[in-house]
Amino acid sequence: MSVYEKLVATANHIQEKMAANIVSSEFQRDEFCVTVKPQSIMAFLTFLRDDAQCQFKQLQDVCGVDYPERPMRFDVVYNLLSLKNNNRIRVKIQTDEKTPVDSVTGVFKSAGWFEREVWDMYGIYFNNHPDLRRILTDYGFEGHPLRKDFPLTGNVELRYDEELRRVVYEPVTLTQDFRMFDFSSPWEGMTDVQLPGDEKAAIPLGWTATEKKVKGV
Fold first, then answer.
1. Selecting from 3.30.460.80, 1.10.540.10, 3.40.50.150, 3.30.420.10, what CATH number does the domain 3-135 have?
2. Alpha-carbon gap, residue 41 to 144, rounded angstroms
3. Residue 172: what pLDDT?
């Protein structure tokens, strides 16, 4: 039996045993992906870890995905690996900005830092996490950077103040406009300003060096 055939057999086994917990399932690029009810995530991952046919003993990653147009805008994605069967499975649950999900640190200890990253980047709260705090951003950081509605510039910027002799936080100030890739004007709001070198753009093709000198170009 090939690895893929083993995965199909395992997927059928999971769907049979845990049907009451499953919302939907599909194969994506030879990988089994299953969406489960949020309240069932602990039981579902425990089954995947302990069942003799599954043996997904390793939690490789926990990550978030943001779909702002959906009422349940966030996916929490769990990627698991079975070394015994050489198979992978992707488990998903959905939640919104206000509804917390259960931490799975009681099933996989490695989930601790992964869930902290999801909280930091997306603001998804995990119930019963032993130490849920930011892990990638600075103390006092505002917002969650991987949300689709997070401003590209961020909310604050920091610098070292020579007089105060410490790092200070200030509102973001932009020293130049955003680039606009419309292939006509490289800078938004600067179409009426002549910059050094702009005069070269008006030189007709075929002019000689002498003609350029006479014209003062």
1. 3.30.460.80
2. 24
3. 79
Domain positions in the chain are 3-135
Please give the DSSP secondary-structure letter assigned to residue 20. G
Residues in the chain: 217
CB 101: neighbour CB atoms within 10 A?
A: 20
Give me the residue label for tokens 């505002």. Answer: 142
> pLDDT by residue (tens digit) across 150-206?
988 887 887 899 999 998 888 877 665 555 555 555 555 555 555 566 555 555 555
Q: Where does the pLDDT of residue 1 fall: very low under 50, low under 70, confident under 90, or very high at 90 and above? A: confident
User: Which structure tokens are listed for 149?
Assistant: 């509605």
| CA–CA gap between residue 92 and residue 44 (Å, rounded) | 11
Q: What is this structure's pTM?
A: 0.75
Phi-psi region of 151 (alpha: psi -120 to 50; beta: other; left: phi over 0): beta
